[in-house]
Amino acid sequence: MAPESREHNLRIKKPKGLWLRRWSRQPAGTPLSRAFADLIPRVSQENDILDFLGKRPHRKHPGVLHLSQVQLPQALVTAAQRLVQESSIPNIEKQVQTLTNYLWSRKLPTEPEELRKKAIQLENKLQDTGSLQSEKQLRGAVLSALRKTIYLWQKLSYDERLSLVYMAARLDGGFAAVSRAFHEIRARVPDFKPQTLMDFGSGTGSVTWAAYDTWGQSLHEYLCVDSSTSMLALAERLLKGGLDSGKPHIPGVFFRQFLPVSPKIQFDVVVSAFSLSELPSTADQTEVIQTLWRKTGQFLVLVENGTKTGHHILMDARDLVLRGPEKSPIDHRPGHVFAPCPHELPCPKLAASPPQACSFSQAYSTIPFGWNHSHKEEKFSLVILSRDLQGEDHRWARLTQPVLKRTRHVHCHLCCPDGHLQHVVTARQHGRHLYRCARASTWGDCLPLTTSPEFPPSPVQDPSDD
Predict the structure, then answer these.
(1) Which of 127, 209, 289, 464 makes the best surface tag, with the fewest CB within 10 Å?
(2) 264 phi and psi, to 5 degrees?
(3) What is the per-residue pLDDT for 53?
(4) Is 344 in the same domain as 444?
(5) How far apart are CA 359 and CA 304, in angstroms?
(6) Alpha-carbon distances of 264 from 294, 295, 320, 405, rounded to whole Å
(7) In angstroms, rounded to a whole number, what is the distance separating the alpha carbons of residues 199 and 301?
């Protein structure tokens, strides 16, 4: 071999020897991750050496909370099909689609003070133009302009026809979203065996079916509260297989139009699913949330559409329980966020510019009506509040968007315990265990990341529609 070649080989081998000499100076017994942390900046020792796996494989790490495709109980499917087949509603498929679109696009009602300020601004603007002479003309022009610029919120009156259309449109999707919420409680607190449940705005009773499917014989009392007598009658018929009489499929279910009067009555689980958005004002929402929290013995589960409006409603409810003064408290235990937030700080998605919706998705098998696809995804927002602080895993970062797998890294959009949004996980920066768990995780799961990675906030915007 030529002298130049030997010299070249020596130049290559020299750094390797130097690296080995530096490695040999590591103290005996130094963990592998600690040694790499000395050489590679920003390696999270805490997350790599944390013994969170036990004997579980990475694909089944403790933060995996997602559900596979949800199946409705066959008794519920049969009852719903019977009721639709027996109905005389013309063109029900079109009415189902119209109601679905309307509910998804619904916004918050305009508050009276906001409406008054807008009217004064329009009146002053029209007066400055001088085109309108009489007071009547001015008032008419202001009202016309308000109709074009202000969202017209209307209360839905659920009579027998609309209740049946709502059942055909929302029974299976609502069941899937609530099942996902209940699954999180059962997965993280397996010893929790609720005995009583109250469902505010119970509608078709999907919460009762989901609770029974989750906890089975543990629950012995379900209180369904809904202002619509038609909805209550429909929910009762569904329990009886779509018939007017017979033995209910789930025992211990009671129906009422109003919340219990006594402040001392509490329930292990209190639920409001897609109901807070049906209230006509912020004041009404505040009063209902405070009442529901007083009725909560352990868990308060709130679910809304996965839109900016739905997320905004839930964050207001979360802040009210955590920081608002409680009226006449019977239970003095403070409230804590159980899910999905890994912190009790202001929501970083609301602070983004523009604000983003924090939502999740659950796959489910639809009721086989003629117009339905066999499988759908329910996009929803949720918040679960607890009277007690449950476990240590509430401090783990939450995946707020689908995981994007790439070569040697994954894009994981994370809401972290310090209240910031972060993304990107690699084996080099976070350790191989966390990296492999991230690749096996999906939207809505948690990662055992207890400190934020040192990356700038994610610039990716949430594509959610308002």
Answers:
(1) 127
(2) -85, -15
(3) 76
(4) no
(5) 9
(6) 8, 8, 21, 51
(7) 9
Q: How far is CA 92 from CA 71, 106, 452, in A?
A: 24, 21, 50
**In terms of Cα–Cα distance, which of 198, 328, 322 is closest to 270?**
198
CA distance linking residue 66 with residue 363, whole number of Å: 10
Both 244 and 378 in a single domain? Answer: yes
Q: For residue range 30-58, what is the model confidence (pLDDT) as tens digits?
A: 443 333 333 333 334 344 445 677 778 88
Asked whether residue 182 falls in the same domain as residue 275, the answer is yes
Q: How far apart are CA 413 and CA 462, in angstroms?
A: 10
pLDDT tens sequence across 71-123:
999 999 999 999 999 998 999 999 999 999 999 998 888 887 888 888 888 77
C-beta neighbour count of 28 within 10 angstroms: 4
Of 321, 354, 386, the one marking the end of a domain is 386
Backbone angles phi, psi at 72, to 5 degrees: -70, 145
For 144, the domain range is 112-149
Helix (H, G, I), strand (E, B) or coil at 150: coil
- Within a domain: 87: yes
| Mean of all residue pLDDT scores within the chain | 83
Residue with more model confidence, 163 or 409: 163
Q: Are strands 267-273 and 296-305 parallel, antiparallel or unpaired?
A: parallel
For residues 62 and 434, the answer to whether their CB atoms sit within 8 Å is no
What value does the mean pLDDT take over residues 305-330? Answer: 90
- 336 plus 438 within the same structural domain: no
Domains: count for the chain:
3
User: In this structure, are 167 and 41 located in the same domain?
Assistant: no
**Helical packing angle, 229-239 and 74-86, nearest 10°:** 120
Query: Does 323 lie in the same domain as 217?
Result: yes
In a shared domain, residues 79 and 56: no
- pLDDT for residue 263: 77
Nearest to 276 by CA among 408, 89, 109: 109
- Is the pLDDT confidence value at 5 over 50? no
Size of the chain, expressed as the number of residues it contains = 466
Let me know: does 31 contact 361? Beta carbons within 8 Å.
no
Q: Is 106 domain-assigned?
A: no
Residue 437 token pair: 């768990």
Q: Are 272 and 239 in contact (CB under 8 A)?
A: no
Token code pair at residue 338: 């159980």
Identify whether residues 271 and 372 lie together within a single domain: yes
Peptide bond connecting 248 to the previous residue in cis, omega within 30 degrees of 0: no
Please, what is the end-to-end C-alpha distance for the chain in angstroms?
Answer: 72
